[in-house]
Design a protein that fits this description.
The protein has a single domain, classed as Rossmann fold (3-Layer(aba) Sandwich), CATH 3.40.50. Helices cover 20% and strands 32% of the residues. A 7-stranded mixed beta sheet has the order 3-2-1-4-5-7-6, with helices on one face. A hairpin with a 5-residue loop joins strand 6 and strand 7. The longest helix is centred in the N-terminal third of the chain and has 15 residues. It is globular and about 40 Å long. It starts with a helix and ends with a strand. The mean pLDDT is 93. The protein binds S-adenosylmethionine.
Length: 163
């Protein structure tokens, strides 16, 4: 079934189930001082969830290629609407929830990470091949596994090598 804004609108509860399972497993790798690039941020539900946990990042840049998907915009997120994102900025972490398979061309994201930076990505299990680039140089896997109840996802947390 093709992805659509209308379907996604009804997906909040399903995404939150995933965040709830994922965050306790990976939170030790994140700091509030981090700058974060969220690739395919959508409605920024993850940051709503983190806020409820009493956690917030110093800087969140939210990229999405669909203007409608990011409305209503969340305070504290710097939005960039484009389907071909490039920046000279280097982030402490990149987060991509269920977006890499839609973008088709996620290669190049690693260039936007600081050395030693991390990337956390999830995909519906049927699309988990989209995470394969996070298993290759320059990345080292820190953690991975299954999450989700209504929809089963696979997540990978990888670190970019220092040199
Ligand atoms: C399934 S939604 C997930 C949204 C959000 N990450 C979440 O956890 O709810 C996938 C998002 O990726 C966005 N997207 C698709 N292709 C993209 C691209 N080339 N660049 C940036 N965002 C893209 C879509 O517009 C959509 O908002």
């Amino acid at each position: 079934m093709p992805f659509s804004t209308r379907i996604y609108q009804s997906w909040r509860k399903i995404q939150r189930e995933k965040y709830t399972q994922l965050w306790p497993r990976v939170s030790e790798h994140f700091r509030e001082s981090f700058s974060v690039l969220d690739f395919g941020i959508g409605k920024a539900w993850f940051y709503e969830f983190l806020d409820e946990q009493g956690f917030g990042f110093a800087r969140v840049v939210g990229v999405d290629n669909d203007q409608k998907m990011v409305e209503p915009r969340r305070d504290g997120v710097s939005y960039i609407i484009t389907g071909d994102f490039h920046t000279p900025e280097r982030f402490d972490s990149i987060i991509a929830f269920d977006s890499l398979h839609l973008a088709r061309q996620p290669a190049g994201l690693e260039e936007m990470l600081k050395p030693g930076g991390t990337i956390l990505a999830t995909e519906p299990s049927r699309f988990r091949d989209s995470l394969s680039l996070l298993r290759q140089h320059p990345f080292t896997i820190l953690d991975e596994g299954e999450i989700g109840e209504t929809e089963e996802d696979f997540y990978t947390l990888s670190r970019k090598e220092q040199a």
